[in-house]
Please model this.
Amino acid sequence: MSFRSGFVTLLGKPNTGKSTLLNALVGAKVAIVSAKPQTTRTYLQGVLTREQAQIIFVDTPGTHRPLSRLNREMMGAVQQALEGVNLILLVVDASREPSTEDKIAVELARTAQRPSFLVLNKIDRMDKRVLLPRIEHYRRQFDFAEYIPVSALRRENLPLLEQKTIEYLPEGPRYFPPDTLTDQPERFVAAERVREKLFQEMREEVPYATAVVVEKYEEGESLVRIHATIFVERPQQKGIVIGAQGQRLKRVGRAARVELEQLLGRKVYLELFVKTREGWQDREEVRQLIDWRQGSV
Ligand SMILES: Nc1nc2c(ncn2[C@@H]2O[C@H](COP(=O)(O)OP(=O)(O)OP(=O)(O)O)[C@@H](O)[C@H]2O)c(=O)[nH]1
Ligand SMILES: [Mg+2]
Model:
């Protein structure tokens, strides 16, 4: 049997479970996840290597109407992640009524002119009788190559999704060594874990006003020393992130550190700073603040 490989982009409106699905497919936490929409800000790869295949899954920000420069950058990342890929997995939240936003994602898949599967996620929390009408609804919008119901959270039906995905890949090389899980540098992973904890720890709009940049990443034999700055948009948000007696920032730091220690297999010394950078979401440097490919700030 020949070796198959290729790039598979996860597309869909915010909060449908793309990043959860990426992690479940790859078998490791490659992308951050939260209950809030627009958690993912740039495209990133998760690599799954089998004996006869290598799939490079590309996670993307949820598709939405861009109102700020940050949002435009996010949608630009979606476009980039659709270029030259072998397959698109359009992920919808099957437990909810399809919306206009889902339709916009379907349109993106259509214009990308690639084979596309419809992945109906979150079947663990729905009445299965709704599934067929949902499939019909999407089928009327676009003739997907496959319709696959899954639960990313409970890892239901993922072997089928993996098998069907491989069937659509061409013969090709192993792009990455078999132990590679992601294309993200470790310092970006560290920044993202801090951002995830901010998303999980804070309510309403404040997490959206944050960006995390790792300024220092020093690896020692038994210790990794990380200094990261959390940028906020307005001075009042600084106080909210820090919390009374610095308690919130401490919780964020502790939660991120515990995960990073597990990931890196070493002790981690994580120091967090909070700075105001007014209106960063609408400024030129936003790309550098959200994406490691653009270099550091
Ligand atoms: N019940 C259930 N919840 C899920 C499932 N998959 C994801 N979720 C939840 O849905 C929420 C959003 O998950 P994410 O993986 O961050 O969604 P996303 O599509 O990457 O979101 P953006 O990055 O904002 O576009 C989280 O609270 C997940 O735990 C699933 O199969 N079942
Ligand atoms: Mg995501």
